[in-house]
Amino acid sequence: MHGPPVVAWLLVALSATTALSCVLRREARTEALLGAGMALMAVPLSAYEPPRWAPAVLAVVFAGTAVHALRPSAHRAATHRVHHSVCAGAMVYMAAASAGAGGAHADHAGHAAGGAAMGTPVLTGLLLAYFAGYVLRAGTRLAAADPAAPAGGAIRLRHAPEVAAACRAAMAMGMFAMLLTM
After folding, report:
1. DSSP state, 135?
2. C-alpha closest to that of 62 among 176, 148, 175
3. Is the CB of residue 115 less than 8 Å from the CB of residue 149?
4. Are 138 and 165 in contact (CB under 8 A)?
5. How many Å apart are CA 163 and CA 87, to the nearest integer?
């Protein structure tokens, strides 16, 4: 990932924590996979230089995730499926842009040459606008959510709808940060 290493490590921590919390919720396996992929892609190149084939493998995995996310499901609304597909598509885009730039080895050369940009600026801009809008919308909904909990704490925290919404908002913020570095 381009940018200061401290920002990259914070993004790794955010993405890994989100992935872990999503693993605990059975209905959030796709979000867990996306979080793990984001954490992996955010590791600074100074700490680990992935093999040249890694971006291509990630692109294939996330392309499959995007297709899987669009499948009709009894427990996911259509807008939720589309959002997951956009997230997975953005991951494919970032992995493909990295592979198209020659992988991690070219990233180092880009830094030396003044930081050559990866990807298509228009598509990157559209994805940035989508994720910024998603974060603002999700944050507004979370702020307006009714904080009252059932008596006796009958709902376990990991299944609370607010946790799922917060996970998606955190993932969208992470995606936004990763797209900014392209």
Report:
1. H
2. 175
3. no
4. yes
5. 18
Extract the tokens encoding 46.
């100074």
Write the burial class of residue 146 (CB in 10 Å: 0-12 exposed, 13-18 middle, 19+ buried): exposed
- Residue at 115: amino acid letter: G
The pair of structure tokens assigned to 146 is: 């009714």
Residue 71 — φ and ψ, nearest 5°? -65, 135
Provide the residue ranges of all domains of the chain, joining segments of one domain with +: 5-180
Question: What residues have CB less than 8 Å from 83, skipping those under 6 apart?
Answer: 134, 168
Q: What is the mean pLDDT of each run of 10 residues along the chain (182 residues)?
A: 80 88 75 86 83 86 84 69 87 84 46 54 93 90 65 52 77 87 78
State the Cα–Cα distance between residues 66 and 58, nearest whole angstrom.
Answer: 12
